[in-house]
Amino acid sequence: MGFNDILKSLFGNKSDRDLKELLPIASKVNVEWEKIKGVSHDELRQISADLKAKIHAHVKEEEDEIASLKAKVENEKPSIEEREEIYNRIDKLEEQINTKLEDVLNEILPLAFAVMKDTARRFKENKEIVVKANDFDRDLAVTKDFVEIDGEDAVYFNSWLAGGNEVTWDMVHYDVQLIGGSVLHQGKIAEMATGEGKTLVATLPVFLNALTGRGVHVVTVNDYLAKRDSEWMGPLYMFHGLSVDCIDKTEPNSPERRKAYQADITFGTNNEFGFDYLRDNMAIHPEDLVQRKHHYAIVDEVDSVLIDDARTPLIISGPVPKGDIQMFDEYKPRVEKLVRMQRELVARIFTEAKTLLASGDRKQEEQGAILLLRAFKGLPKYKPLIKFLSEQGNKATLVKTENVYMQENNRRMPEITDELYFVIDEKQNSIDLTDKGHDTITAAGEDPNFFILPDVGSELAEIDKMNLTEEEKLEKKDQMVQSYAAKSERVHTVNQLLKAYTLFELDVEYVVIDNKVKIVDEQTGRIMEGRRYSDGLHQAIEAKENVKVEAATQTFATITLQNYFRMYHKLAGMTGTAETEAGEFWDIYKLDVVVIPTNKPVIRKDANDYVYKTKREKYNAVIEEITRLVGEGRPVLVGTTSVEVSELLSRMLKLRGIKHNVLNAKLHQREADIVAEAGKSQVVTIATNMAGRGTDIKLSPEVRAAGGLAIIGTERHDSRRVDRQLRGRAGRQGDPGSSQFFVSLEDDLMRLFSSERIIRVMDRLGHEEGDVIQHSMITKSIERAQRKVEENNFGIRKRLLEYDDVMNSQREVIYKKRRHALLGERIGVDIANNMYDVCETLVEEHKEANDLEGFRMDVLKYLAVDFDIKEEDFQKTSANNLTERLYKEIRDTFSRKTETIAKQAFPVIKNVFEQRGEMFKNIVVPFTDGKRAYNVVANLEKTYKSEGEELIRAYEKSIMLAHIDDAWKEHLREMDDLKQSVQNATYEQKDPLLIYKFESFNLFKSMVDKINKNVVSTLMKGQIPFEAPEEVKQAEEKRTDLSKMRTGRSDAPVAQTNQAPRKTEPVKVGPKVGRNDPCPCGSGKKYKNCHGKGEE
Questions:
Q1: Given 198, 448, 680, 826, which residue has the most CB atoms within 10 angstroms?
Q2: Residue 918 CB partners (closer than 8 Å, separation 6+)
Q3: Beta bridge partner(s), residue 168
Q4: Distance CA 396, CA 760 (A)
Q5: CA 750 – CA 753 distance, rounded (Å)
Q6: CB of 615 closer than 8 Å to CB of 746
Q7: What is the DSSP string of 389-421?
């Protein structure tokens, strides 16, 4: 008994402790349910209305105080210092409201869950539910087919359209689902097996939290599930007066998208939620903002969203000047030639190695082992080599030889690699050119160092030692830096082309469709539309496949899903497979994973893996097993890891005459249809790994009797979670089933991560070709190899997050400033802080040097103020006191200036309002700072009523937004460049992340200083160059223009991405009503005079 077993026997395991805590909640819900089962339908709806009222009463005191504080700012015009205190108080009150809301929700949880459970029961048991109609029901009846108005009554039906199919409600929550609902409400991850009804479980916490009116987001992995689930579960919420919408049914930046976010419950895909956040932070009008505060989100298939997709940032990008000037096509012929020469060299080395290893002479065998290692370092994916290493003793020989040459920090490894043109490290996904490779790729007559990066530090030191003037030294340094930049781009291009040719295979990592390279998701086998490999790798693959190399783009806004979802006040998730990644969920998101027991015991039989020597034997055995299972009348689901393997198995099954369906990246449009068929007798479905998530495979009684769904895994995935997901497709709700994985020593996981121990065991057992080994020890060893990969992947994701955390802290500062400017509420406080910062910077710059003249000149230059101070005062006064004095002078000058502008503009605005007020809503007022003109849009009526003060606020807002956006766009470009350039630090034995953090801080500091100086300078110098009322123009209503922007995802920290055109889908509409027909809301009016008003 191990130490962990002793601890478990003393304290129980985590799962038992979690259940002990959660079971009483389920009991309380059932007690409440028994009480309300007998009430009428109207009384049930009244209970939910009372719960809503109770929640609002609980936080009324804080909400009233916030309202009065905002009114005080609006009406009493407090000073900047008082305003800052008021806003800090509002922020504290918002935090108190969040805490109090959680308290009251926990208190009403049993009753709210009982209400939702009984609503489900009533919809199951009644074809029609008649209730007294209210305004919400009448509005609903106009657009939804499951509600009709009959006089004073509303009739809810229990059948409706969901995802294009008619569904009849037939579900009621059982106890384990009540437990799952409690876990989700607590802001944790509920792991529930396939078929346990995760979508239904979510209705409980969604309903409870939606009662607060603060918005609940239900996040799904694709738009089909988002639309289906909003239509499927929506009527249960709407019955209780809660509005439901789906952002994926609306266009970005549209009023409809904004309305979807205003709903009590909003469904959508992870990408769209993230992109909307980025778009909101590019908006130039408050009306363009669509999202509310991020309050509560439930993420469906949480492992897919927060782990698999977490390392791919969401990016909004736009064209850059000269973005199509790239070197991929130029250097492609050289790289092709180099790869061909390496292949020929490795083939010769490998042939010689095999001969020497088979000679029987010890010295020759040692020489053969060295050649084998050289071939492996040159082309680890060379298929004859992979087959040879799967044979008895060969892998052990390779590992033993590699260990000798890796001693003392790889000191002797050049003896192996110098003969090659380049060296591949498959585990690190890296390629390095050798000296021989550099010589070969450099064309005749070119500089021998054409593809070699210089040591910048030593070259700069050499220049300093030269007997030259300062100007000549500076010129030489500039030339050297320019040469380094050009070489860096050249080396990078060649490196990415080498990766494209040697590490990335067509129909495995990517496919080519419509002359475009599209990435295949290794988890689901789906095509990742709009996603591109980062760092020029995608362009390199495009050059390799002879398709158009897309132009480079510049990032305008970016965020990782990790940082987007960490913004929510409360985050929860559900999936069938999270336990193996529990450590990562806790480390990054502080999310606890709770395993929910199944409603019925799982009786699926999970067999130990079959291990074969070669892939050929393994695939033959898979076909034999499929043939046997089909003969028994069972359906078979075959899981593969790539398009290539699924097509190979499909060809083998065709030769046997076995009918089957294939679901992979090339055929993903048929996913729902294929998965629906997969449970029928003798149906064989070949699917890439997690395809069909979110759709249950249901079995007929004959199939259950035959033994249920059989799962065959053709390879162990890098992650145990994916294998568990595949296994979980069988055995839902107590169904019989089986799972069996087939593994070969040639599989990537076994080649790269299997231990020496497993190789020795195989050899000792005399593993001949055609033999199969099945043993629990081997299965556990494979799972240990998977753990190694999981740890490695977690490390990569964590490192990406560390990079993005640097960006995120900067993003939060800028977006907060931008939001304050856009909404105008706190802009006065921000401008005051900007002014103080500029004063402090100017004092710091000149006080230390005791430069009074320079100080006065800079104050005049940036602040347009002639600051009168004697030299003696300047020397004696401390920096802090001097800053305060200057700040007070600036504030007073700015106040006088704004009053003058308001007085100057008001007579004109008064004239326009009185003469043309009914024609104009907003007006354009031109401002200038002497360098640049700014057209400021202000609300005419508010400007008139505030006697010009609204115009000053609009001016401040326009200046802030213009300078923030210009500086942030430039900063993102610099950060992109920095992220690429710091990677070269590894050559100098330095940590790129540390350099990135240090340099990015300096970049950010200089950007903030630049924004502050530009904003304050423009505000202090600004004036209105007009006086005639006829020059005042009406402002055209314009929305934020994002037409030239592209949304997409990069496959690593740095990338630019492009998106395919948005796929058009048939729009599903509610019942069509004629303009002269009676309105469905039951008002008795014609549709055109009621809910059809405004429609053409």
A1: 198
A2: none
A3: 159
A4: 7
A5: 6
A6: yes
A7: HTSTTHHHHHHHHHHHHHHHHHTTHHHHHTTSS
- How many helices and strands, by DSSP H and E, does the chain display? 38, 30
What SS3 class is residue 903?
Answer: helix
pLDDT tens track for 765-793: 555 555 666 667 667 777 777 777 767 66
- 964 close to 818: Cβ distance less than 8 angstroms: yes
- Identify whether the C-beta of residue 379 lies closer than 8 Å to the C-beta of residue 343: yes
Cα separations in angstroms, 793 against 787, 797, 970, 1083: 10, 6, 32, 60
For 780, residues 6+ apart whose C-beta sits below 8 A from its C-beta are none
- Determine the Cα–Cα distance for residues 281 and 275; give it in Å rounded to an integer: 10
Who's near 303: CB < 8 A, 6+ residues apart?
573, 575, 577, 578, 581, 721
How far is Cα 21 from Cα 719, in angstroms, rounded to an integer?
A: 31
Nearest residue to 797 (alpha-carbon basis) of 1064, 587, 1096:
587
533 φψ region: left (φ > 0), alpha (ψ -120 to 50), beta (else)? beta
Residue in 231, 276, 272, 236 with CA at minimum distance from that of residue 253 = 276
Helix (H, G, I), strand (E, B) or coil at 833: helix
> In this structure, what DSSP letter does residue 1086 have?
B
In the chain, the amino acid numbered 179 is I
pLDDT digits (tens, 9 = 90+) for 441-453: 887 667 777 777 7
pLDDT interval class at 1062 (50, 70, 90) = very low
Strand order in the sheet with 216-220: 244-246, 265-269, 216-220, 296-300, 570-575, 189-191, 593-595
Residue 109 clears pLDDT 50, i.e. is over it: yes
Q: Cα–Cα–Cα angle for 773, 777, 779, nearest 5°?
A: 70
Q: How is residue 724 written in tokens?
A: 């568990």
Q: Is the dihedral angle over the CA atoms 377, 378, 383, 385 positive or is it negative?
A: negative
Cβ within 8 Å of residue 129, ≥6 positions away: 41, 122, 123, 155, 156, 158, 239
Q: 191 - beta bridge partners?
A: 575, 595
pLDDT digits (tens, 9 = 90+) for 792-811: 666 666 777 777 788 888 88
With CA atoms as reference, report the closest residue to 824 among 1011, 1010, 949, 968: 949
Give the best-scoring range by mean pLDDT among 360-369, 477-486, 717-726: 360-369
Decide: 537 and 499 in contact? Cβ < 8 Å: yes
- pLDDT band at 346; cut points 50, 70, 90: very high
Give the three-class secondary structure for 571.
Answer: strand
The number of beta carbons lying within 10 Å of the beta carbon of residue 442 is 16
Residue 430's nearest CA partner among 438, 422, 442 is 422
- Other CB atoms within 10 A of residue 178 CB: 26
Q: What is the pLDDT of residues 622-654, one digit of tens each?
A: 999 999 999 999 999 998 877 778 888 998 999
- Report the alpha-carbon distance of residue 770 to residue 763 in Å, rounded: 14
| CA-only gyration radius of the chain, Å | 34
Q: Half-sphere exposure (CA, 13 Å, Cβ side) for 851? A: 12
Dig out the tokens for 837 from the structure. Answer: 């910062």
The set of residues, in sequence order, having a beta carbon less than 8 Å from that of 320 and lying 6+ positions away, is 552, 553, 554, 973
Q: pLDDT, tens digit, for every residue of 166-176?
A: 899 999 998 88
Report the greatest alpha carbon distance in the chain.
107
Phi, psi values for residue 553, rounded to 5° = -130, 165
All residues at 6 or more sequence positions from 175 whose CB lies less than 8 Å from its CB, including other chains: 26, 30, 599
Q: Who contacts 1072 (Cβ-Cβ below 8 Å, separation ≥6)?
A: none
Residue found by looking up tokens 């209210």 in the block: 134
Q: Are strands 531-532 and 296-300 parallel, antiparallel or unpaired?
A: unpaired
Least confident of 69-83, 210-224, 295-309, 313-327: 313-327
Measured distance CA(583)–CA(1007) in Å, rounded: 37
